[in-house]
Specification:
- The structure holds two protein chains of two kinds.
- In chain A, about 75% of the residues lie in helices and about 0% in strands.
- By secondary structure, chain A is an all-alpha fold.
- Chain A has a single domain, classed as ABC transporter involved in vitamin B12 uptake, BtuC (Orthogonal Bundle).
- A two-stranded antiparallel ribbon of chain A has the order 1-2.
- By secondary structure, chain B is an alpha/beta fold.
- Chain B folds into two domains: about 35-150 and about 290-360, Response regulator (Rossmann fold, 3-Layer(aba) Sandwich), CATH 3.40.50; about 155-280 and about 365-405, Rossmann fold, CATH 3.40.50.2300.
- In chain B, strands 7, 8, 9, 10, 11, 12, 13 and 14 form an eight-stranded mixed β-sheet that branches. Chain B has a six-stranded mixed β-sheet with strand order 2-3-1-4-5-6, with helices on both faces.
- In chain B, β9 (about 225-230), α8 and β10 form a beta-alpha-beta unit.
- The termini of chain B are far apart.
- Classes of the chains: A mainly alpha, B alpha/beta.
- The interface of A and B includes residues 143, 146 and 149 of A.
Chain lengths: ~325, ~400
């Protein structure tokens, strides 16, 4: 145990440093960089929610962007087509995303491993197809644009990207706190037990199906929160936000950053957002660079960046 | 090492100093900072060729004016939107918030156009859409900051529906079109005027954008219709033409369609199977006017290929933008003045013919009925008829038109 905490000693100062950076830096950054940081914290929530599944429960989902997208569509449809108020749109988006997770959970939580991967991927494709073809509601390929800005809706004092950033950061902190509580709770420990050895957990009398199901639903709920934030940040939703590419990019964020750490996926999200935006401005081959980084990570930090220097557990 | 000032070295130093001074003087004469134009089109992926054509046309025009307008230098900043709306939005943020461009131009796909519009409006940056043809961008969901110098999807098809009935004598049609907004709006426009004349659309066949094989669709076409209306582009257009002949439909059922089906971005890759196809668009590389001849020849000499309507789009769009910048003497920092100038200017000598903007920000321009012919061994879109000054509302009153819903499946 002592050895283990020594290995982890570098982590705490880094977390503090990152937190201070996220809190203090925006007033000194240009609008463009504040925008990027906003993307990082929103996608950070999403990546952490997927970490609940991949890292803590051992369920590799390839359709997780679906809940994110569906919640964003919920906000988009309610606030543009039906001109619903802010709280009604938020509640609507959350209920649609979480409700869908509750429904899909019934289908997917019976299976494990590669079967889980395949089924979640298929369901993700169904959601994508729906967003693409249910034109009267989703606008098809054209998506939904013109989602009203958050500033106007809740009367934030100042306009510009910084107030929205702090709202996103507050939501991020809240979600991160809740997810940390979740994984540290007896429930979270049971999930990790299932990840390590499900038959043993079952023989100990745990209802592993129910645990898996609840883990899936809560991951969907947090993804919905990220989706709602994204809809307000972007002002626009289109099928590309919930297609397979989006889901696999999300998967990449978690595995790159380090599963079962919660902090790692946020770092993964940050790395991918920055690479995507900054590298792509200099070279059209940024995907190549991302690929190289991923390969290097697999070779030298197979457990992800945040698990660097830690021996493989389990 | 011994340092000696040899004549060669001395002259090299003199040249270097002169160049530096020259650059310094040149920089001094540019007392004002450059005008930054942000531009984006797909430059990778399946739509890269169309994007490249648009960029080529723009660069050709900027070269003609020496990258200067309103007494200021022009900096063109190009981004690749990968034909993904979300990426387009990210790139627009980069161009506007990081590079701080004064004006934007570009986008190819309607979906990207719709994604950008609210953001462009909220940032109050004037933007020129040279290609994006989604009807509603200048109809029910228009933005005062976006000026379209291209066309709206249904615009040439309104004219074409009437032409097909009256002049071509077609009474019944099956449509084969790509299953997305551009396809729906084109077919919708055609159907509206064609049906109003008394024509009948027997069947509408929608094919996915990623279509590889037209066999299942071609098999559905009844052989007793007067014509097949095809709206395709890129690879799908090539594939369709080949299979239309293989299915024995060519010569039995007349082939007509939207302009992109035989546009010059695919026409050089087609064979005799394309001959005789009649389509409608606001441009043809074979348009017989002095302005277009000069444009097409210069373009061909420069890029070693025939200009497509995409190439022409941003040549004209560029001309439009520069005319507006000149009209306000290069004071692009006054964005309100720039967007007003964009709506007011009327550049002359455009390859496609006279163009003016209506009050909704969409061009009123000629629609050409073109037939694919082989001339001097090469396929071309011969202009066989012209509808002058066609508005996006055709002959309908704009207010009535806008009360009706957008064309959909």
């Amino acid at each position: 145990m002592a050895e283990r905490s020594a290995q982890r000693a570098w982590r705490l100062p880094l977390v503090v440093l990152l937190a201070v950076f996220l809190l203090v830096s925006p007033p000194f950054l240009s609008a463009y960089w504040v925008g990027l940081l906003t993307q990082v914290v929103i996608l950070g929530i999403l990546a952490m929610s997927l970490d609940l599944l991949i890292g803590y429960t051992g369920l590799p989902s390839l359709g997780h962007a679906g809940f994110f997208g569906v919640a964003a569509y919920g906000v988009g449809v309610l606030s543009t087509t039906y001109h619903a108020g802010f709280w009604a749109s938020v509640a609507g988006g959350f209920l649609v995303g979480t409700g869908l997770a509750a429904l899909f959970g019934l289908i997917v939580s019976h299976v494990r491993d590669v079967y889980f991967l395949m089924i979640t991927m298929a369901l993700g494709m169904v959601l994508w197809g729906l967003s693409f073809r249910w034109i009267p509601v989703t606008g098809g390929d054209n998506g939904i644009s013109g989602i009203p800005r958050l500033e106007a809706l809740v009367g934030l004092p100042a306009s510009g990207p910084i107030p929205f950033y702090y709202v996103a950061l507050a939501v991020f902190t809240m979600c991160a706190g809740l997810m940390t509580l979740l994984v540290k709770s007896p429930f979270g420990l049971t999930l990790q037990g299932i990840r390590e050895h499900e038959p043993r957990m079952r023989s100990l009398g745990f209802n592993t199906w129910l645990h898996g199901y609840l883990s899936y639903v809560s991951a969907g709920a947090f993804a919905s929160i990220a989706g709602i934030m994204w809809a307000y940040y972007n002002g626009f939703v289109s099928p590309t936000y919930l297609d397979l590419t989006a889901s696999s990019e999300l998967f990449l964020m978690v595995t790159l950053g380090g599963p079962a750490t919660l902090v790692g996926p946020v770092i993964g999200a940050g790395a991918i957002v920055i690479l995507k935006n900054v590298m792509s401005a200099y070279t059209a081959r940024w995907l190549l660079i991302l690929g190289i980084i991923y390969i290097v990570t697999i070779l030298w930090a197979p457990q992800g960046l945040w698990n660097l220097g830690q021996r493989r557990s389990g | 090492m011994e340092l000696r000032t040899t004549p060669v070295r001395l002259s090299a130093i003199v040249v270097l100093v002169l160049v530096c001074m020259g650059a310094f003087i040149a920089a001094q004469t540019d007392s004002q900072p450059p005008i930054k134009i942000g531009f984006m089109v797909p430059l990778s992926g399946g739509n890269a060729q169309n994007g490249r054509d648009i960029l080529n046309g723009f660069m050709m025009y900027l070269d003609e004016i020496g990258y200067r307008a309103g007494g200021r230098r022009i900096d063109l900043i190009v981004e690749d939107d990968e034909a993904i709306p979300a990426v387009g939005l990210t790139k627009a943020r980069k161009l506007i918030e990081r590079d701080e461009v004064h004006v934007m131009a570009g986008a190819l796909l309607s979906s990207t156009g719709y994604a950008l519009a609210p953001y462009i409006t909220s940032m109050k940056i004037p933007m020129v859409y040279p290609v994006v043809s989604a009807d509603d961008l200048t109809q029910r969901r228009r933005s005062e900051w976006i000026v379209r110098t291209g066309w709206s999807g249904s615009q040439p098809n309104h004219a074409f529906g009437e032409y097909a009935y009256r002049t071509l004598g077609i009474r019944s049609v099956v449509t084969v079109a790509l299953d997305y907004a551009f396809g729906w709006e084109s077919v919708g426009g055609f159907e509206r005027t064609f049906a109003a004349q008394g024509g009948r659309i027997r069947q509408k066949i929608w094919v996915p954008i990623s279509v590889h094989d037209f066999a299942p669709y071609l098999a559905q076409i009844p052989r007793d219709v007067d014509a097949v209306y095809a709206l395709l582009l890129g690879r799908s257009a090539l594939q369709f033409m080949r299979q239309y002949q293989e299915f024995g439909l060519k010569g039995r059922v007349k082939l007509i369609g939207g302009g992109t089906t035989t546009d010059e971005h695919v026409l050089p890759f087609m064979g005799d199977e394309a001959i005789g196809t009649i389509t409608a668009l606001h441009y043809s590389a074979a348009l017989d006017t002095p302005a277009n001849k000069t444009f097409a020849e210069t373009y061909r000499a420069r890029y070693k290929k025939v200009p497509s309507y995409y190439s022409e789009s941003m040549y004209t769009g560029g001309k439009w933008l520069i005319a507006a910048i000149n009209a306000i003497d290069g004071r692009v920092e006054d964005r309100q003045a720039l967007v007003k100038a964009l709506k007011r200017v009327k550049p002359e000598g455009l390859p496609r013919g006279p163009v003016e903007l209506d009050e909704y920000g969409n061009p009123i321009e000629n629609v050409y009925i073109r037939r694919v012919d082989r001339v001097n061994g090469q396929l071309q879109n011969t202009v066989i008829d012209t509808f002058p000054r066609v508005s996006q509302f055709w002959t309908f009153a704009p207010a009535d038109y806008l009360r009706e819903p957008l064309y959909a499946r």
